[in-house]
Each structure stands twice: as structure tokens, then as C-alpha cells.
Write a structure and sequence with these properties.
- The mean pLDDT is 88.
- The protein is of the alpha+beta class.
- 35% of the residues are buried.
């Protein structure tokens, strides 16, 4: 299950650009609401909310907006009724796509996603058509210049980690979703700061793309992520190195 760091680097670069747009504020606000709705307002008990707050601060969402979104999620303030939905489909080169969305209107969102997939050379699939190709995992990324594999193993394997993957300039530690909070706390207690930590959908295998289909896939993902309702896009597409610069 490799390649998460490559895609995260692309998404992180895009996030810097999108941070200037109000629609990126919309995405982090929705995640704050969903995280608070799912696990409450106490970040000590809700690591998803803790991560959502960190992401909101990273794009300079004002403190009052963060607090307001959390209160809407817990029901302390009246807000839009959001639900999480997952769409499955195919992209250029036959790659699999999982599209996470947060919406107050399922009919609008499914129509938008279907249109974007068609426009970008992909297609919507039935529920379950590609989901089996992915596994939900906790993913922690550590820069190699900061920690050795042995240092990470000392903490990771005692607190639920499943494996440590070599991903170019970072080490990736994977765990089951239910072990994410415990492992996160263990790394924090050991003073090991991550480049990134999240629960993500990792592909069990990847599909190698040529440059043409790789560019088409990047364009399609850009279009999908520009939609206010789309929160994350996961793929098993393996981009050629020249597109990862």
C-alpha cells in the first residue's frame, strides 16, 4: 500500500494554492462540522477534530469561524445538515477513484460528480465497484532526515502499527483506523513530530499511468476537488516521475 506520500505532496501543493480561495475555507469548515458531529468537541477524545482544527489553522481560518463550525457540528448552534457520502468510479487509464463528499443535498452532489467524471474522461461506477481495492488506514509520515526506521519502530510496533513503508524522502507508518489515536498519542509523547497524519484510503495495488493519462488524471482530480462538496479524492493511479516534480 504505497504511494500515499506522492499524492499527498500533490494535494499539499494544491492546498497552498487553494488556501487563497473561499472554497477551501468551505472544505475545512465542513470537516470541522463533521468531525465535531461524529466525535464531540473535546479534542482529547476526538483526534479527527484535532486534525481538522490543525488543517483549518494552516489555511488561516479565523478562530471564531473554527469555534462556530465546531458548535454547529455538535448542535450548539443551528447549521446546515451535512452528511458524508462516498462515490466510486473510474478515471483516465482505467484507474479507480473514491470520492469523499460532504453535502446537504445528495441529488445535487451526485449529479455534479457524475458530470465532472464524464467531462474529465472518467465514469461513475456502482457502489462497491472499486471500494474493495482500497483499505482504510491510519497514515503517519515522518521525514527521513529527522528519524531512522529503527527509532520509529521502537514506538510504532508497541502501539498498533502494522508496517513502516519507505516512500522516497519519508517513512510512512500504517495502522488500523481504531489504533490511530493511540499511535498518534504515542508519537506525540515520544516527541516525534509528523509531516502529516490522517486516516486515509490506501490502494492495495496501483495502476501505472503514462504521461498523457497522468496529466488527464491530475486535471480530473483538480476539477473534482474544486467542487465545494468534494472533500477528498483517492486513486490507485501511479503517476510517472516527471509529473511528481
Amino acid at each position: 500500500m504505497s504511494g500515499h506520500s506522492k499524492w499527498h505532496n500533490i494535494q499539499a501543493h494544491k492546498s497552498v494554492q487553494d488556501a487563497k480561495k473561499s472554497k477551501f475555507f468551505t472544505k475545512v469548515t465542513k470537516e470541522l462540522m463533521l468531525a465535531a458531529k461524529a466525535g464531540g468537541a473535546d479534542t482529547a477524545l476526538n483526534n479527527r477534530l484535532k486534525s481538522a482544527i490543525a488543517a483549518a489553522k494552516a489555511v488561516n481560518l479565523p478562530k471564531d469561524k473554527i469555534e462556530q463550525a465546531i458548535k454547529k457540528g455538535t448542535g450548539e448552534l443551528v447549521g446546515e445538515s451535512l452528511e458524508e457520502v462516498l462515490y466510486e468510479g473510474y478515471g483516465p487509464g482505467g484507474v479507480a477513484l473514491l470520492i469523499e463528499a460532504a453535502t446537504d443535498n445528495r441529488n445535487r452532489t451526485v449529479a455534479d460528480v457524475r458530470h465532472l467524471l464524464s467531462k474529465g474522461g472518467g465514469a461513475m461506477g456502482e457502489a462497491g465497484c472499486v471500494g474493495w481495492m482500497f483499505a482504510k488506514k491510519g497514515v503517519f509520515s515522518f521525514p527521513k532526515e529527522s528519524f531512522t526506521e529503527e527509532q520509529l519502530m521502537e514506538v510504532a510496533l508497541e502501539h498498533g502499527a502494522e508496517d513502516i513503508a519507505d516512500e522516497d524522502d519519508v517513512w510512512e507508518v500504517h495502522c488500523a483506523p481504531e489504533d490511530f489515536d493511540a499511535l498518534s498519542g504515542a508519537f506525540e509523547a515520544a516527541g516525534m513530530t509528523t509531516d502529516d497524519a490522517e486516516v486515509s484510503m490506501l490502494p492495495s495495488n496501483t495502476v501505472a499511468l503514462d504521461e498523457e493519462n497522468g496529466q488527464k488524471l491530475l486535471k480530473l482530480i483538480d476539477m473534482l476537488e474544486d467542487n465545494d462538496d468534494v472533500q477528498k479524492v483517492h486513486t490507485n493511479g501511479d503517476l510517472p516521475d516527471e509529473l511528481l516534480v
